[in-house]
Write a structure and sequence with these properties.
Blueprint (H helix, E strand, L loop, with lengths): L8 E2 L1 H7 L5 E5 L2 E2 L3 H7 L7 E6 L2 H4 L6 H7 L5 E6 L5 H11 L3 E4 L12 E6 L2 E6 L5
Parallel strand pairs: 1-3, 2-4, 4-5, 5-7
Antiparallel strand pairs: 6-8, 7-8
Protein name: FBA_2 domain-containing protein
Organism: Panagrellus redivivus (Microworm)
């Protein structure tokens, strides 16, 4: 998307509805609706394999965490949520608590191997942060 306004909030559910074959979304330097997780969760199916947020402010990656674990569990195996921030964020500590409480396994990305490419995961990069959190494998 070409919009670089920090005040614009992209509605990811509308994007997926209008482009049902969409597999990857990168949101760069603009915000997404705080309810994007819940909005996408309400859709019966989607083909997303990756959602990325790249930015310079908390507004870019801030979203409601209420249904994040449910959302991740309903995605196809190997789904990636990628959060890349160029500044220290107050959002990351909150996100880490939700991921820990949701039973995700933490790996420092600098020590990560490529053996888990079919496992749903959350990748976090920021100032001094290089983490991957893996959803427990479904049987």
């Amino acid at each position: 998307m070409g919009n670089t306004s920090d005040h614009y909030n992209l509605n990811l559910a509308h994007l997926v509805k209008f482009f049902p074959q969409l597999e990857s979304i990168r949101v760069s330097n603009c915000g997404a609706s705080e309810t994007w997780v819940t909005d996408l969760l309400k859709l019966n199916q989607n083909r997303l394999t990756k959602v990325e947020f790249w930015g310079h402010s908390d507004a870019v990656v801030w979203f409601a965490l209420d249904n994040l674990i449910s959302f991740l569990s309903k995605q196809q195996p190997g789904f990636e949520l990628v959060l890349r921030e160029n500044a220290t964020s107050v959002f990351y500590p909150l996100l880490k608590v939700v991921l820990q409480n949701g039973g995700l396994r933490h790996v420092d990305r600098r020590q990560e191997t490529n053996e888990n490419h079919n496992v749903t995961r959350v990748k976090i990069s920021g100032v001094g942060v290089y983490e991957t959190w893996y959803l427990p494998e479904q049987s």
